[in-house]
Amino acid sequence: RNVKRQMACRSDINSFNAPFLAVFESLIPADEEKVKQKQLMMLLEKHVSKEWPEARLHVYGSCANSFGFSKSDIDVCLAMELGNIDKSEILLKLADILQSDNLQNVQALTRARVPIVKLKDPVTGISCDICVNNVLAVVNTKLLRDYAQIDVRLRQLAFIIKHWAKSRGVNETYQGTLSSYAYVLMCIHFLQQRRPAILPCLQGMEITYFTIVDNVECAYFDQVEKLQNFGLRNGESIAQLVWAFFHYWAYCHDYANDVISVRTGSTLSKRAKDWTRRVGNDRHLICIEDPFEVSHDLGRVVDKYSIRVLREEFERAAEIMQYDHNPCVTLFEPY
Ligand code: CTP
Ligand code: MG
């Protein structure tokens, strides 16, 4: 590994910029899709406000964080005061209301880890998951969207990494690999580490946005329009960054000792977080600190089998970026 750690990037790397950008462009949702999502949201809002006038609907996840592909499902959060009513009751009621408005496949999954109502809108063909009071997800969605505004290379890189992860079958949390959310945080961390840095650490700056959700303080600098020039001192191209991203996760990250932390713009030690031992199902084989729920390791789904799969995939991708004559195709070959 040490030998590879010294590896210099291939000299023809920039000839792959145009093909990588073409991959990115091909995944961006069209404007009509955004219009359809808004239509479905308006329909849902109509039903919700009739039943619960005080409640609010928020879109979170890929449709709102600017890392969504074309044809993504919409993630929606119903935010309301529950008092002593439980979430399942609300979800069953919601399913009932929506069922009667010729939406398709309305299903309340009240026993899931995150209980939701699932549905499909026959008019737009869009599927949608609605959860109750997952407000931290709404706030971390804003954080990701704000980071994406600072430098276009984040969105380009994250689209390419998500597309790679989906093509290679390593974007399946129920199989022990990582969520899209985790991959985007890995991209942000990586761009914070470039020298000169391409992204700042928003949670280490003056606080312009503050909220407390579920007893968690969420505070950071959100006036990102003032940071438009932040990454300009670094001229790395998208192909160089894709190469360096895989090189980093294949050969440079210290899996045994380090935690990546977007919150601090740096890495922390597993020891400092007490993430050195297996506790219950949390094995901490790859550690990614949630930016707000700091006791939450997004790598906790990874087990001793899937960590091998992941690391082999990072190494495969690094080799392709180094040697393959057509990396923009080979990288995304189905497994
Ligand atoms: N989320 C979270 N904690 C997790 C996983 C997800 O808070 N461990 C929240 C985040 O707000 C994230 C949203 O749930 O934006 C959706 O997660 P995910 O499906 O991983 O990301 P998407 O951006 O929706 O990606 P995809 O296009 O693959 O659906
Ligand atoms: Mg999603």
TrEMBL record:
<feature type="domain" description="PAP-associated">
    <location>
        <begin position="237"/>
        <end position="296"/>
    </location>
</feature>
<protein>
    <recommendedName>
        <fullName>RNA uridylyltransferase</fullName>
    </recommendedName>
</protein>
<comment type="similarity">
    <text>Belongs to the DNA polymerase type-B-like family.</text>
</comment>
<feature type="domain" description="Poly(A) RNA polymerase mitochondrial-like central palm">
    <location>
        <begin position="22"/>
        <end position="149"/>
    </location>
</feature>
